[in-house]
Input
Amino acid sequence: MDGASPEPSYSEWMREEMRRHEWRQADFARAVGIDVSMISRWLHGRRPDPASLERVAAALGADLDSLLTLAGHRPRSPRDDDPRVAALVAKVRQVRWTPERFLIVDALLDDLRQRSSRIPIEQAPLPGMPAEREGDG
Output
């Protein structure tokens, strides 16, 4: 494999979500609150409209911007390349922000940015992430 993989389509993303949740089309439709016939159309390549994508994003906790890009409603940008960033953005958008929460997260991000410039990532394993060792892999 040459390392370059094409961006998945919206229908491929849906299939993966259905597999991950162990859902049938009817389960996906029920979660989003739409008719199952629409799910079938989307799986066969019909592009969902932005309002429907909003419902999908809200129901599944997905990033709306990423879904709009996958469905072809907005052009891709370099920031769309990392699915981990999209997952973090989706989580941030789900937070009920208070001034205190904003200050805490803002301070954590500032601290992370400062540490990132001083400490190589290999020397600073994150909680819950296994530390990489020389010769592993």
User: Anything to note?
Assistant: Residues 86-123 form one domain. DSSP finds seven helices and no strands in the chain. The chain has a mean pLDDT of 80. The two ends are 18 Å apart (CA to CA).
